[in-house]
Amino acid sequence: MAERSHFDYIIIGNGLAGLQLALKMASDGFFSDKHIALIDPSEKNTNDKTWSFWEKEPSQWADLPYKTWQKAKINTSKTTIDLVLAPYTYKSIRAIDFYNYAKTKLEAQQHFNFIIDKVTTITDTPKTIVKTQQHRYTATHIFDSRVPDDFYNLNNSITINQHFKGIVIKSKTDIFDVDTLTMMDYRLKDGAQTTFTYVLPFSKTEALIEFTYFTEKVVDEAVYDMFIENYIKTYLNINNYEVLESEKGNIPMTTFPFDSYNTKNITKIGTGGGWVKPSTGYSFKHTETKVAKIIENIKASKTPSKHLFKRKYKFYDKVFLKVLKDENHKGEWLFQQFYGKNNIDTMFRFLDEESSFAEELKIMWSLFSWSFIKAFFKTL
Ligand SMILES: Cc1cc2nc3c(=O)[nH]c(=O)nc-3n(C[C@H](O)[C@H](O)[C@H](O)COP(=O)(O)OP(=O)(O)OC[C@H]3O[C@@H](n4cnc5c(N)ncnc54)[C@H](O)[C@@H]3O)c2cc1C
Q: By C-alpha distance, which of 45, 144, 161 is closest to 94?
């Protein structure tokens, strides 16, 4: 238990969003006299996922990547698209390395308190209260990374599940091209649905191989296993391998209005705050941008969640999700157009929500089709 029961800031959840927010506070003198608690039932001492993202150098995460790549490819049933990523680099960070890095930095500062406990309820007014299984705390502001129950119970929004299983394998012989990751391989699919394999080669003999669905319904674990095994045998020609690790996930790609749960005293963060990019499921770099905006708002005495989202990208994401929902078989075509007809700078700037209107027009032109026109007008 912490020695105090009131904090300036309570961060619920020591995951990606909670720890990135705390790290940003720890690096800013404005917060050096603030008491900050991080509450999570988990000690965060297992490698529960691998985060991948693209960025330009230099970066604050320079010491963390387990592997980086300068080249990527997309395989469709018709063609291979080779991508030279410069000026970007694609990077993977093992979650355990990130947790250890963050804990070491935060534990070195006495005004950060780690509390191992599960939050049961929070109250906004008249007092900002956090009740856990064991205690009760008050705070000036709460950052909450729990996904609202309404997302599961009252969800009328467009939601596609990005669900997947991945295994890290070690082959007996040198097989992988360590310089090139496979962003999407559509040669093996589950029927007409949007499904693909993602391959991150860590060395000549080790790689993460993930079978991913962008669909409304999820599948049994045995289904992912069957596709992964098939891919390894048929497309990688590996018969002899050992499984070193596995990860499973379901990332919501959704138009659910998470930001409507923000108040003056409570800010939803991470997946629970809608920080996962609806059209891609990526959130590592978006988390960084949102955290920077929150800190800027706090320092300017504004509500922390003010202007966290750009409306035009919400619209683009919604159109994209509508196409995927109404015509799920179009996924392969859609990504082939997107990656095949635009240059890397335009694509990444668009996905990072930094594009100009001219770049957005280029992207829209590359996807121009009856499906998009329909989805566009239905979304309007
Ligand atoms: C397997 C997997 C792989 C992914 N890979 C990528 C990737 O490569 N690139 C990318 O950009 N994104 C990726 N994502 C998506 C996204 O980046 C992650 O889901 C990310 O972890 C979201 O951050 P978060 O802080 O919202 O959630 P989390 O990191 O899951 O953290 C939430 C924390 O809240 C805690 N918590 C929950 N309930 C309570 C409670 N009641 N009280 C206190 N604490 C609580 C949990 O214990 C957890 O520690 C991946 C997601 C998964 C699941």
A: 45
Residue 353: how many other CB atoms lie within 10 Å: 17
Whether the pTM exceeds 0.90: the reply is yes
Q: Angle formed by the axes of helices 357-366 and 331-341, to 10°?
A: 130
In this structure, the residue with its CA closest to atom 10 of ligand 1 is 282
Token pair for residue 328? 């799920």
Q: Is the CB of 273 under 6 A from ligand 1?
A: no
For 6-48+95-154+255-299, CATH number out of 3.60.20.30, 3.30.70.100, 1.20.5.420, 3.50.50.60 equals 3.50.50.60
Q: What's the 80 CA to ligand 1 centre distance in angstroms?
A: 32
Distance between first and last Cα of the chain: 51
Give the orientation angle of helix 95-107 with respect to helix 16-26, to 10 degrees.
30
194 Cα: distance to centroid of ligand 1 (angstroms): 23
CATH number listed for the domain at residues 159-253: 3.30.9.10
Nearest alpha carbon, ligand 1 atom 17: 283
Q: Provide, rounded to the nearest whole percent, the portion of the chain with pLDDT above 90.
A: 92
